[in-house]
Fold this sequence. Notes:
- The chain is α/β, with parallel strands linked by helices.
- The chain contains eleven helices and 16 strands.
- Strand 5 (100-102) and strand 6 (108-118) form a beta hairpin.
Amino acid sequence: MLSDETRLEQAERILTPALRTAIDRIPDIESRRIQDIRLRLGRNLSVTIFDKEYFVDQDGVLSNSPDKAVKVTAADIDTVFKNSFRNSLHSFSRELSQGYITISGGSRVGFCGQAVINPLKDSTPDSVKNVSSINIRIAREIYGCSNEIYRKTFAAGGKSLLIIGPPCSGKTTVLRDLCRLLGDEKRISLIDERNEISSSIDGEAQNNVGMLTDVFCSYEKYNGIMTAVKVMSPKILVCDEIGSKEDTKALEYAVNSGVELVATAHCPDYDDARKRVTIARLLKFGVFDYTAVLGTGTMCGKLIRLVRSGDKND
Length: 314
């Protein structure tokens, strides 16, 4: 397991010297809590801590004001972008089209700018040019953060679980830790569409996702789920951020094949989940034994509500 300090250090390697120096000077008590490092062309360097953005000056002082913050130049953007792709853009066409790439240590670099559109592919982007913003999301492994959920669900006899919460509620971090626990007990297929859970590099998971876990890295969820059920015979299937009709179709296929499920979905609360057509369908038919709701802010990653399928408040 890599320490948070090591992961931050590895993320800093893609920065230019001026940006790296500013980040290095941030006091440890704050740097270990950094969630994102954000670069915006012609504007100011900032970091996100507990979902709040702070500007960073050359001495590593965090502030709500951009006045003294380090200015991000075109050279900064160009260098960080190329470093993310190991100066070999042509080798990562899929990542370019999707707008992100995972770097050593498991952190994810997302970027945006001017889309290069392929009219033969339903107008989906082939690449991005004139990159204007870069977000380096620092990977975190928090061992034990899923213990309460595990104890109240799987240890209590549950077999399938849906984890919900709004953005920045810690869903992926909790899912990763739960995958680790379950993957040391049962055969798991992890459908890691955005490579956020395993953070695999050259086929090797940078994060601990369990000894018995097979990783389907960068597979689109539908194909990943269908393939996993057919070729890996998982006891449990794990995937992040379900919600489309295709996701539902594949998950129902998995359930009908006798596979247990652990998944997450973007929903602010359980009542909202019940109003969303695709999620509501899965809940209605009891696909998930439990639904865990996570909090945000100081309650980020914490269980604030647990609903068991068939309960009166379900």
